[in-house]
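Everyone, describe these structure tokens:
***
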Amino acid sequence: MIVALGGFLMGFDASVISGVVGFIETEFQLTKIELGWGVSSLALAATIAMMAAGPLSDRFGRRPVLKVAALLFAVSAIASAIAPNFITLVIARMVGGLGVGAALIIAPMYIAEIAPAEVRGRMVSFNQLNIVIGITAAFFSNYLILTLGESGPAWAEAVHLGEWNWRWMLGIETLPAVLYFFALLMVPESPRWLALKGREDEALKVLERVTGPEQAAKDLRAVHASIEAEAEIETVSVRDLFHPSLKLVLTIGISIGILQQITGINAVFFYSPMIFEQSGIGTNAAFMQAVLVGLVNLVCTVVAMALIDKLGRRPLLGFGMAGMAILTLSYGFGAATYSLSETAIMGLSGDVDRTALVAIADVVYNSDIDFRESVSSLIGAAAYQQHESALVSSAIALNPKLILVAILGFVGSFAISLGPIMWVLFSELYPNNMRATAISFVGPINSVIAFLVTLIFPWELANIGNAGTFLIFGLFALGGLVLMMRILPETKGRSLEELEELLVKH
């Protein structure tokens, strides 16, 4: 539970930006690519951290790396909250990204190395559970700060919760980060790492606390057998991962690492209020529906944890990816039309040039791009950006419940499949002495794809449109489903040493 708090901080840190994007876009006058950079910079820094976290944890231990990650989360939260400009905000977010990358790699690795085989899938998934709890907490925290800032009690006004809402959204993470650091002081080191370093007595003591003396001795013998079998490989480099004997596990690791992000889940998590605003429900309702996204993600992750060691990895992955492909949002947005009646125009804020908009009264647009370009040409791009939520709400004609159901279904499908299963497979696929290096190789690939998806998502919405953007995500999910069902064997119920014999052709 303590180690998996790193997952909570990762989920919170990554998703809290969803409530911030609209405010920083206006305050710092950002372009769509700059906005995407502000969101995706965390993933870029996480990629760098992933490449270093595994080797560092092999040298210094799993626990020290996690403690450094906790400090990085705290520093990032404080610096983000007080950032005077966009560049400072990006740097602060990247500091947090270093913590995200380290926690994302080391926490599931530690859990896999200490958990008994029969419950390993569920225990590693507990890290993913904490990630989604963190995501849900971020959505709820953002909504709470927004509503309290608008009509909250006197104390909220005293701390400028309304004026500095996005700064409070980012800064509140300091509290769980400090808690994580001190809680890690109670956690023992990984027994497999201790065995690798020749500290057998310490390793045995930790294993005895996990499974009891008899099973601990048996587990330690299995670890030693694995270490001795691969003793000729004193150092493991990325080049060693491309040995023909590792072709299958490397292909699976890279494929699922790409698929987890290229199907668009982080675009939904990090921009969910923006997506819901595109359906015309308004800012506050959009933040509330983002909370629902987090809750569905949480519930379905719990379901996945309960089933992953019973049904296995393949059935959950197949069911979930099929759902992601089917529940693409393109139909709902593609069916939308946009038209501003004279009454709707007159009901807009006085800050909008309503006289200019009369020229397009009752004109029907079949795409969000055409509507945006037409309105921007009349009132200016800056004014459209500032009042986009109100303009879209007044003009759009579609069933917002359809969009909500599709998004919740998409997130739920992800949460029972690619969400937890990727990290379980990362912790299972590779030989003991190569696990840290392998995860530090495939993890950054996952993070690079996350960076690219979140970087260009605002640009895609502006240039390809809602329907086209989500159609692309659906096609990637369909292709990934076919690929994984062809190459992925079942791994449930086997020890890490048994899986090595199964998957690696020595």
